[in-house]
Amino acid sequence: MNYRHAFHAGNFADLVKHAALTALLDAFTAGPGPLTVIDSHAGAGGYDLTGEMARRTGEAARGVFRLMAAEDAPAAFDALKAAVRAANPGGGVGVYPGSPSLIAARLRRGDRYIACELREDDHALLAGALAPFAGATAVRADGYATAEASVPAKGPVLVLIDPPFERADDYARTATTLAAVLARNPGACVAVWLPLKDLETFDAFLRRVEPFAPGLLVAEARLKPLTDPMTMNGCAMVIAGAPAGVEAPLRAACDWVVSRLGEPGGRAEVWTTDS
C-alpha cells in the first residue's frame, strides 16, 4: 500500500479521531484493568509536520495548528493539546503525536497495547516510538487479522480500526473484524474511523454492522455537504460498546471542528443507531 499518514497528520479528521480516542481512554483507564488496546493501522507513531509530506498537503495548518492557536477549543481537546505540547517541548507544533503515542502514554501497569503496521519503514518508526513503554508492542502484521486473533475473550478491550480506505475491501474487512471481535468478547469496545465522502457508502456500512452491533454511537463531522464523492467531505467515528460519558466530548469536538474548520452547509451530529 502506498498510503502514508504523514501527508494527513494533524488534519481535521485526526482532531475528531483523537478527541474520541482520548475520551475512550479516559473512560477505560478510570475503570478496572487490565485493559487491552489493539490498533489495527497504527502508522508511524508520530509525525514531523515540518517535513515535505506534511507541507505538501498543508492539512495540519487547517487542523492542529488552528486548534493549538484557538482560545475557544472545548475540554474534549485538552488531552490531545497536552500531548501535542509534550511532543514539542521547545514550543510550536512541529511534531504531531499519532494514536500510538496517545495510547501508550496512558497505559497503566498491566495494560497491554498491540499496534499493527504493515509498512516496513513506518513499523520501524513505530517500534522506536513504543520502545519506552513496557506494555506496548509494535507488530508488523495485518491489523484486521491481528485484532481478530488477539482480542481476549474476557476483560476490558478497546479496538481502534482506522484503515486508509485505499483498498476496495477495507469497508468489508472493517465490518468483518468488528463482528469477529464482538463475537469473541461481547463486552469489547470497537471504535471505527470512517471518511465521509457520500452518504450511501456511509449508510451501507452502518446497515452492514447494525445486525451484530446494535446501539452504535455515531459521531459525524461533515465539513461540507456530501455532494462530491471524490473528496473527503468529513469524517465519522462509529463506536460499538461505547462506555458511558463519551457522547458529550464527542459532540463538543465535532461541533467545534465543523464550526471552526468547516464550510457553509457543514453539520455535526452525534447519535445512536437505536434511537
Description:
This protein has 275 residues and is an alpha/beta fold. It has a single domain, classed as Vaccinia Virus protein VP39 (Rossmann fold, 3-Layer(aba) Sandwich). The strands form 2 sheets. The chain has an 8-stranded mixed beta sheet with strand order 5-4-1-6-7-9-8-10, sandwiched between helices. A two-stranded antiparallel ribbon has the order 2-3. Helix 1 runs antiparallel to helix 10. It is globular.
Task: Record the SSE blueprint.
Elements: H1 12-29, E1 36-39, E2 46-48, H2 52-57, H3 64-69, H4 78-87, E3 95-97, H5 99-104, E4 112-116, H6 120-130, E5 136-139, H7 143-150, E6 157-161, H8 170-184, E7 189-196, H9 199-209, E8 217-222, E9 234-240, H10 247-261, E10 267-272
Parallel strand pairs: 1-4, 1-6, 4-5, 6-7
Antiparallel strand pairs: 2-3, 7-9, 8-9, 8-10
Helix pairs in contact: 1-10, 7-8
Instruction: Examine the secondary-structure arrangement and name the CATH architecture.
Output: 3-Layer(aba) Sandwich
What is the CATH superfamily? Vaccinia Virus protein VP39
Structural class from helices and strands? Answer: alpha/beta
**Treating each run of at least 4 consecutive H or I residues as one helix, how many helices?**
10
Strand order of the largest sheet: 5-4-1-6-7-9-8-10
Number of domains: 1
Low-confidence region ranges: none
- So what's the oligomer here? single chain
Main sheet specs: 8 strands, mixed
- β-strand percent reads 15-25%
Number of beta strands: 10
What's the CATH first level? Alpha Beta
Span from first to last CA? 38 Å
- Cα-based radius of gyration, to the nearest Å: 17 Å
Helix content: 25-40%
Q: Sum up the overall morphology in one term.
A: globular
Mean pLDDT metric: 93
CATH topology: Rossmann fold
